[in-house]
Design brief:
Blueprint (H helix, E strand, L loop, with lengths): L1 E5 L3 H13 L4 E6 L2 H11 L3 E5 L7 H11 L4 E6 L4 H9 L4 E4 L4 H36 L7 H11 L8 H14 L9 H9 L6 H32 L4 H10 L2 H12 L12 H18 L2
Parallel strand pairs: 1-2, 1-3, 3-4, 4-5
Protein name: Response regulator
Keywords: Phosphoprotein
InterPro entries: CheY-like_superfamily, Sig_transdc_resp-reg_receiver, ST_Response_Regulator, YcbB
Amino acid sequence: MRYYIVDDDKASRTMLKNIIEEEDLGIAIGEADNGKECLSAIMTMHPDVVLIDLLMPEMDGIETIDLLKREGYEGQFVMISQIVNKEMVGEAYKKGVEFFIHKPINRIEVQSILKKIVEQCRLKESLLTIQESLANIGLANNTLQKPQSVKQIVLSTLNYMGIIGEAGSDDIISIIEYLVNERGHSPQLPPLKELYEKLAGRSGASLTEVKKETKAIEQRIRRTILTAINNLASLGAIDYTNPEFEYYAPRYFDFQEIRTHMIHIQEGRGDTAKVKVNIKKFLQVLYLETLEKYNKTH
């Protein structure tokens, strides 16, 4: 979930941001200290939830919500308030506010409310998925799965990670093709060096050339996986609930590495020099998923 915080009290904004990130409720993608300042940013960034103070100078929370809705914002609002005024609360409900956070801010209350919102969004997504499935079920029942080659399956996966054009993508495809087609579908991955040497020696190269190409293959694959890490971390930094991010980040990589790199991106430090790359985990998961999909259509 992506949150935007609007509150004229900096301490409140900082506290809310810390609770969101420390409790793994998503990420705070922006903040503002008044209603006028936040309008353009919210319409550009499209956060899932806007946490907004009820009373602010220049433009209060209700006026800001009204303007955002007129502009077409369709996310959710959580009102922050230290006063209990039935008329204002009633007006907020009319504008579509479902949840309130009271000041002084309480960690337990914030955590409870935001968890409800996360669950609500997941339920909506599940309902949409079910509706789409029901709409297409007739077509799905009458359509036979076409057999796919190993290369097509791997390319599809690499495409989701944004690394089809990388130099190491061809090496990765060749490795998975070898594992699926020539090793009897064994679930275990051989030593990486053995795989690299197998690829390097296919053209009848000399021992010296094989050693040189083996190192080159490893470097190309490492750089390609590093690019995938950067792509997914960038995706997660923008949208923590993105389906591609949620699926690939924890399966193919050390999620803590992804999470650390996301923080660096959010802080404006995009350097990948210190990111650890686990080639074996990446290839193992890719091989097993490719093998499963390949066996289903053959």
